[in-house]
């Protein structure tokens, strides 16, 4: 037993609509069991069904008649009692001040350093210390007092009354743990601290809020009754353990309200929207609209009249299924097309009651009969769903004047099982072919012939053959040259015979791969006149009409070279074998050439030029004769320029003077200057000089 025992006295003032009222102040000299202590009024606005009461002093209870009565004889009591009433719709507390009963003895064990519960506190709490000395004061510490949020709770230092300085928000902080102690005026701890627990009772001060203001959902037409469309969800920030956050959903408006104002139902607790309308009436094509708007209300307090509400809008779209087959607007379509032309000839139109721009509406067309040559094709116009029938192979009026096609239409999506394609999904198309004046046609095209080049001018080359497709009309044809690059040909305008007007030359730049190409035009006498073109290809055979020539035309050699080989030269010929190689290359016919030069055969196309003795620095023109193997053979006299140069340090210094012709006097003079002289022992010096000059 502490010399200064103390107790906690708490009272709460209600702030909610429902209320408990304890009438008056009880002044009782003594309380015995079965005696009515105080009548209590409690009203939860819903009939008080299931209400329970809890009294802070275990010696008292509230009976079924809402009277505060003792359980047993009560010899003493605290100065106040608390009555806590709870039902499904209300949670409230009342304070009863008790007088006339003796207080607890100072020797009654006190609560020290224990938890002092302030359960369901709203505003004010008072702590009174029994037999407190006047030089002691109360002190309140903890979050909400001297810690953030500071100053929310304050305590009267003299009376121990704890009060709230401003409004509490349970949704921000739902409970507080404070410590109460007593100190002397110097701040020294006298007693405590004791833990004071304050629980903030929830008030219904938050409306239900939907996650979204507008919800969207879809349901397939013809869906069974009870099909779930979507779920509406609202949140309430109040205490989820109370009815303050117990939500109930309801549909208060449907727009439009046809064919029934109750096409949909919402589960009051879960918020699921389901269909009520029968599958037969849920027909997208017969409903007044494909979009319905529902106004949904969520109410707390389990939907009671005093509950707070929140609203949202649900937009439900009736989606389409392929329950309608496409149908042609006409059983027969007609079209006409000029022979020889291609392109779209007719557009086929269909009706489909399904949702446009969906696979259940988009059409696929096919030709089921009447097109064995595959001259027609049909495609869907993506803009309007029409079938575009086209001619892809030109039609011939003379072959067939009339075509009958059978066209079938289907959807991209398959039809539902109980719907099929009927006769209206097939149509007939009559296509009339119109006659036009067609141009003459060459056959064969191209016409290929083989001719020898250099045939005499006026020689026959070919006979053109062009016919008029308009066999029902008697029309004449005239021929003319349209393109003749070399100007070698002429054509008879009536008969179409082609003759040479100039020699044919296989080696001409207008000939490619031995082929010469010319184009001719044929014109009928229809109105208007029509033309056609044909190609003539002449394969030219080779004739030995080109003499061969020698390459290269220049060769260089050092004057003091030990190797007397000058160069290898080859023969070239524009003609084809056997009018070209093998070639025969030999020295020219000038006398004395074989004293200084020699030509030796290397192979069928090349020969070796050699010098038989040294020559002084100069340029020499060496005459050569080259002959091909044609029948008869062709020869060509040509010259090769041989430069005899001074070679020093891998550099050749050649003469820029004119070349010496390899005639006999020039060669003899060169030999006299270059051949060494032999001095006879029996000759005089003058005789040796004369002999040397002669040599």
UniProtKB/TrEMBL annotation:
Tell me the leader sequence span.
none
List the protein's name: Cadherin-13
Could you provide one GO biological process annotation from this protein's UniProt record?
Answer: mesoderm development
Gene3D superfamilies per record: Cadherins
* Alphabetically ordered keywords of this record: Calcium, Cell adhesion, Cell membrane, Cleavage on pair of basic residues, Cytoplasm, Glycoprotein, GPI-anchor, Lipoprotein, Membrane, Metal-binding, Repeat, Signal
**Compartments where found:** Cell membrane; Cytoplasm
Q: What are the Cadherin domain coordinates in residue numbering?
A: 138-210, 211-328, 329-442, 443-550, 573-667
A single Gene Ontology MF term assigned here is: cadherin binding
Subunit annotation? By contrast to classical cadherins, homodimerization in trans is not mediated by cadherin EC1 domain strand-swapping, but instead through a homophilic adhesive interface which joins two elongated EC1-EC2 domains through a region near their Ca2+-binding sites to form a tetrahedral, X-like shape.
Source organism superkingdom: Eukaryota
The record's listing under Pfam families reads: Cadherin (PF00028), Cadherin_pro (PF08758)
What does this protein's UniProt record list under function? Cadherins are calcium-dependent cell adhesion proteins. They preferentially interact with themselves in a homophilic manner in connecting cells; cadherins may thus contribute to the sorting of heterogeneous cell types. May act as a negative regulator of neural cell growth.
**Gene responsible for this protein:** cdh13
